Amino acid sequence: MYDYVDLDFEIISMKPMVIKAVADDEELTITALPVVLKVLKYGNNYSIWVNVLVSTKTNKPRPGPQCSPVVITSRPAKAGKIEIVSDGALRLRLSDGSEKEIVIKPTNLSLYPDYRDQFGAPCVILNWAVFW
Description:
By secondary structure, this protein is mostly beta strands.
């Protein structure tokens, strides 16, 4: 049986991941905010569980069929140009007295301009990797 310690943490600083993309004739800004769910410690090893909240802004919002997992997995994704403006980063102060820097990097971006979120922006699937 593992003897994990569930650590409390304080966020010292946060920087969102920002990606600029073009799909068809739309310019998109995709912002991903890292959210720490849990920090565990076993001996000198840490396990930091992170999720990401994604927000998409478009220069041409419009209504359209809503995003859904069924539609998205059955359609091809589109993207003309993708530029990573910045990786996401968090700096945490842990209750054991240490500090950890967490970096979030995008690994894949899929855009679905025919389908829209509730704000009129294209559906987006963002995959990421977490490093600390």
